[in-house]
Hints:
Largest sheet: 5 strands, mixed
Helix content: 25-40%
Strand order of the largest sheet: 2-1-3-13-6
Number of helices: 18
Amino acid sequence: MKRGLIAATAVAGMLVGVAACGSGGEKAGADGFKGQKLTVWVMSGSNPAQWTEQVSAQFKKKTGATVEFKVQQWNGIQQKLSTALSEETPPDVVEIGNTQTAAYAQTGALAELGDLKKEIGADWNEAFNKSSLVDGKQYALPWFAGNRVVMYNKKIWAEAGLKGIPKTRNELFKAFDTIKKKTDAEPLYLPGQNWYFFDGLTLGTGADLVKRQGGKWVSNLGDPKVAKAMDIYKQYQAFSTAPKNKDEATPQQGEVFAKGRTGAVIAMGYEAATALKANPGMKKDIGFFTIPGETADKPEGVFLGGSNFAVAGMGKKQELAKEFLKVALSKKNDRQMVKESGWTPKSPDLADAGKENPAVAAAAPAAEKSGGTTPLIPQWAAVENLPNPIKSYMTAVLGGKSPADAAKDIESEINARLAKQ
């Protein structure tokens, strides 16, 4: 039976207790999975080609079942996923953003995975696993996480006569200015709504986008420290001609970078693959470095973004879904994710895998010294629903409105979303 489109935080009434009845009728055992098909929802850009190929092959060899990866788009995903998880035949395994997991777990939409975590993730870094926990219970398993770096075009930097890597924000801005003056390239491609980069800048000022007040969560966009972060973002964006009302996926900034006349983008490590798919010939021209901060000893603040894998509470193939997670999150396949996509290793014995990917090395200093995330609370997922009010705030400030006035314009909307249970 189909259900209407609903917000993530409004699913509770429909999903209480569904995890307990999700796996009825499933046949397990040595040959019990043979011939079955498992449906896994992944987000666009998340599952790299080699990782997907080897996980699919290993899963089939182990269980006799096949896996179908269905790629989803980030825009509107929360409403779409909320609907899918409330249906009688939901996707068996879903990728969920690490800032959104708590909202789905609170509704009962996800199966508990505590025993599986003990079996395959005993040595995972707790910082990675934190977003999978709700009230101390394991409702998802961490798949990957990482943070943004500067991905730059070595050829353009050479054209501008630039040597060495900027160690401070001012040095970076001077490099962008030199590219602008000495080449016909755009120094930086930065759309006005790259809000995860903005959130990192906010964390770097010591503030956050929400705060606790009177026993509830409310907007913190009026904080002068948030305004300072937006001013820094505005300085970055001044070097770019990218639209002020679009994000980094509209269009994919990796594809813009691939055209060869962009000096740099603020990117996740996996975006290099997007660029190389569009322009394989520029492989030798792509470089990475840590986003420098105000001083050389502390990188710019960064948002530690990533995704978790969860099993649908109403899924009929929960045991098979767990077998998939054992394969997908094995040491071998976690190592492949680090090597292929540039994610930060989530256990100590995977650290060497990052040496084969320069984006990992560039991301590590900021992750260690300046990394953070949005509040890991169920209410936060509603803030990210479209239309995202923080993106509206960013566009308004870039368009000339003061940070204080732009904050006032959207605070009531953010507060209303945070008040949803």
